[in-house]
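Continuing the series of single-chain predictions for the mutant panel. This is the parent chain; the variants come on the following pages.
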Amino acid sequence: MEQNGNSAQRSVRIVTMDLVVAALIFALGALVVFESVRLGASWGTDGPGAGYFPFYIGALLCLCSLAVFVQSLLKGKADQAVFVTREQFKLVLVVLVPTTAYAFGVWLIGMYVSSALFIVLFMRIAGHYTWLRSTAVGAGVSVAAFVMFEIWFKIPLPKGPVEALIGY
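Parent structure:
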């Protein structure tokens, strides 16, 4: 935690984030190494096995992330630089949470309905527009995208039950 000005402001230090990201990348590299060994990471009579090159990429990921982890540990308490404050993180979440819900919605109910809902709610909640304006823009954009992609360009995008009702 860090103190800024007169009031206490909660924040995350850069060193902490370096440690977390290094650990996550190490885990990813270890997974790549493990799967590469399972696939065959050796050199056979006919050339490299399926896991030969991925093995070394995974090992390199592990080595580099370990170096970042040790470097961050050595900085420790000396580096008090702030990665993100609580207020900054809230601003990120205002975009991240709805966008994640939108991506899940595309999978669940299709592209066009999810897009309309995303636009309507984002305009209403984050932009403070009226329900009428938000709904008009959300529906208009989704209908325009549907006409452009599905009818004009014949490019199918993920659809849900609403599109099935109209025969797409």
